[in-house]
Design a protein that fits this description.
This protein is of the alpha+beta class. It has 5 helices and 10 strands. The chain has a 5-stranded antiparallel beta sheet with strand order 4-3-2-1-10, with no helix packed on it.
């Protein structure tokens, strides 16, 4: 019996050691976005990375020549940093506005709906109109992709984030217009064009 207890106790660290990185969604500047599904899968700029665990609280995800260091802090939150060739390195920042999940991990797509969830939109809101329109949903997905690329190219620029939040507020002002769908469509097309021209990105 004592041998069985000792064996069980000896297996506890191994079980915790095998725990995969928790879910997270981080922006790493020009390196791109880093996403973890919390089940052991980590993607770097949309590419599946090879994950290696060195301790119960530290992992490294490698994609090409980019190495992502993942550390679980005492409060349970992850700290993410990156290392690229020529000694390029930096710290990644948590990203709430753009999902860096690969297409297979996302619940929405250009053909099924907008970039946001339609499950809890307010009745009569501009979000509801977008969810009901295939054209507007496709434009929303296109803008989300364009914004994501602009965010990466701008090195996670805080001003760009503020501008995007301001644009969303302006978009929602389309409720005042008689032709709300046309107003929304114009707003999306103008914002997409603006981001493409300013940051040199394509969606």
């Amino acid at each position: 019996m004592k041998k069985l207890i000792l064996l069980a106790l000896s297996l506890i660290p191994l079980a915790s050691f095998a725990a995969p990185p928790q879910p997270f969604n981080f922006s790493c500047g020009k390196t791109g976005g880093v996403y973890s599904d919390g089940k052991g899968g980590v993607w770097v700029d949309g590419q599946k990375a090879a994950v290696k665990q060195s301790s119960p609280t530290y992992w490294e995800a490698t994609s090409g020549k980019t190495v992502i260091s993942i550390m679980r802090t005492a409060d349970g939150n992850p700290e993410i940093s990156f290392t690229r060739p020529n000694r390029v390195h930096g710290v990644c920042l948590a990203e709430d506005e753009v999902s860096f999940a690969p297409a297979a991990q996302k619940k929405t797509s250009a053909t099924s709906g907008p970039s946001f969830s339609c499950a809890a939109v307010t009745q009569g809101s501009m979000e509801e109109l977008i969810c009901q329109s295939g054209t507007l949903s496709a434009l929303d997905v296109k803008l989300a992709a364009t914004y994501k690329k602009a965010l990466v190219k701008s090195n996670n620029n805080s001003m760009l984030k503020a501008e995007q939040r301001g644009w969303i507020k302006g978009r929602n002002e389309c409720w005042k217009e008689d032709d709300k769908n046309a107003c929304l469509q114009d707003a999306y097309q103008q914002r997409i064009s603006e981001l493409q021209n300013k940051y040199g990105v394509k969606s």
